């Protein structure tokens, strides 16, 4: 598969990194020579310095034979232009990163007629992610499959969890009445993600990911040593497009929302457009202001300003005031890896979310959904099983499944089934698989 990425920023780099594990024929175009040199030194991709809107340059990288052109520069207009030109020159499929959510929601313009096959808005995706995290308040990462029929849930284990010091096998025996599969563990100061086996032991401060059918979710809370709590009162710091979209999403679901915006003119505009949100003009770093606005009565605090450090510090302040759920938007992807240690329940990065969403257009096989978990460099797939796929030839225990991957669950005829060793996967099943990068190609072949 030949893939051309226009833009070597965070989204482009992360996409190129994911593709480099699979030896895809990948080209990256950017003006910035330093970014391209970094890619050359770290990834197996071909780089080209220059303007991706240049017809000559696109022809030089073989645009006419490209299976996919992904335009993810920082400029929405540039991304549109690249897509239109690329499609006209023969690219089979184009994807453009955009900033204006109007283009996604009930838009009267058919952009595919102009050469833009798919559009993706990092801001829109981040706002949706925040809403999902609030709905699963005791977890710091969550992914839904088939509208919540199966869920991948992440949380950090404290001393209160009865899982601590048990092996995976012992935990399954002790909690045999609860259906769950532990699909990954990220341990403090350990770079490699652990794919758990029967003898893997849970430890305090482990970031653990579970695959859970919807009927078992309420039973998982005692196992992780936490209580489910409802979130009603939410404070949002920052009136960015993400803050505005998040406020609108939450108000539609009857949350009580306060939004703090520093710039007066913008705060006035938000107050007019967000009828059900209380908009406050002020500096969210002002502790006196937070106290005046009753931060101690908030169930959740969401910081989405343009400054990562401000978001992190304000969430720590909110936590110190007794706020149960804190979510911080960060631009630096390196911060994602330290979310376990700094005391914030959830850190999100809109570019990482966007890259993951784009990546499902690249996957082989019948992939219905794909997601990246925030703290680990791995993916969760939802495959639709084809009639003659190799995965149907034997029970799970006999499939020679790679050690770097694990089955998370099976959805058959609208019902959630546990993916235990004796289970035989059938055509038409939808199968959830957690996979480290080095095993992706092997897993895909099993579902081909």
Structural account:
This protein is of the alpha/beta class and 448 residues long. The chain has 14 helices and 21 strands. The strands form four sheets. It has a six-stranded parallel sheet, sandwiched between helices. The protein has a six-stranded parallel sheet with strand order 13-12-11-14-15-16, with helices on both faces. Strand 2 (25-30), helix 2 (33-42) and strand 3 (46-49) form a beta-alpha-beta unit. The relative contact order is 0.11.
Inertia-based shape:
globular
Mean pLDDT across all residues, rounded? 88
Strand content: 15-25%
Distance between the termini: 15 Å
- Provide the low-confidence segments as ranges: none
Report the count of strand segments: 21
> What is the percent of helical residues?
25-40%
Cα-atom radius of gyration: 23 Å
Structural class: alpha/beta
């Amino acid at each position: 598969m030949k893939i051309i990425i226009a833009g070597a920023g965070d989204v482009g780099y992360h996409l190129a990194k994911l593709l480099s594990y699979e030896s895809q024929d990948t080209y990256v175009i950017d003006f910035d020579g330093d970014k391209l040199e970094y890619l050359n030194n770290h990834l197996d991709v071909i780089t080209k310095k220059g303007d991706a809107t240049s017809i000559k340059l696109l022809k030089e990288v073989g645009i006419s034979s490209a299976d996919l052109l992904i335009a993810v520069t920082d400029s929405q207009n540039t991304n549109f232009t690249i897509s239109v030109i690329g499609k006209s020159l023969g690219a089979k499929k184009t994807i453009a990163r955009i900033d204006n959510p109007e283009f996604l929601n009930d838009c009267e313009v058919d952009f595919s007629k102009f050469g833009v096959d798919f559009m993706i808005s990092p801001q829109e995706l981040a706002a949706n992610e925040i809403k999902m995290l609030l709905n699963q308040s005791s977890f710091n990462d969550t992914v839904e499959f088939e509208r919540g029929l199966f869920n991948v849930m992440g949380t950090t284990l404290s001393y209160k969890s009865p899982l601590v010091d048990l092996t995976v096998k012992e935990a399954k025996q002790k909690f045999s009445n609860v259906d769950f599969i532990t699909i990954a563990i990220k341990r403090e100061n350990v770079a490699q993600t652990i794919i758990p086996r029967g003898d893997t032991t849970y430890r305090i401060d482990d970031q653990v990911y579970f695959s859970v059918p919807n009927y078992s979710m309420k039973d998982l809370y005692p196992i992780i040593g936490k209580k489910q709590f409802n979130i009603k009162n939410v404070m949002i710091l920052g009136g960015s497009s993400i803050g505005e979209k998040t406020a609108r999403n939450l108000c539609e679901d009857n949350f009580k929302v306060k939004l703090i915006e520093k710039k007066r003119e913008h705060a006035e505009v938000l107050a007019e457009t967000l009828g059900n949100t209380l908009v406050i003009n002020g500096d969210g770093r002002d502790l006196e202001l937070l106290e005046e606005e009753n931060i101690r009565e908030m169930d959740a605090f969401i910081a989405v300003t343009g400054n990562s450090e401000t978001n992190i510090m304000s969430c720590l302040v909110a936590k110190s005031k007794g706020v149960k759920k804190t979510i911080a938007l960060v631009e630096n992807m390196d911060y994602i890896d330290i979310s376990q240690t700094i005391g914030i329940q959830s850190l999100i990065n809109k570019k990482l979310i966007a890259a993951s969403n784009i990546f499902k257009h690249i996957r082989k096989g019948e992939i219905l959904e794909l997601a990246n978990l925030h703290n680990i460099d791995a993916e969760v797939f939802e495959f639709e099983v084809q009639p003659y796929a190799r995965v149907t030839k034997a029970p799970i225990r006999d499939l020679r499944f790679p050690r770097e991957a694990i089955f998370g669950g099976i959805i058959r005829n609208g019902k959630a089934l546990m993916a235990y060793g004796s289970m035989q996967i059938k055509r038409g099943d939808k199968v959830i698989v957690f996979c480290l990068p080095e095993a992706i190609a092997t897993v895909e072949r099993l579902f081909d």
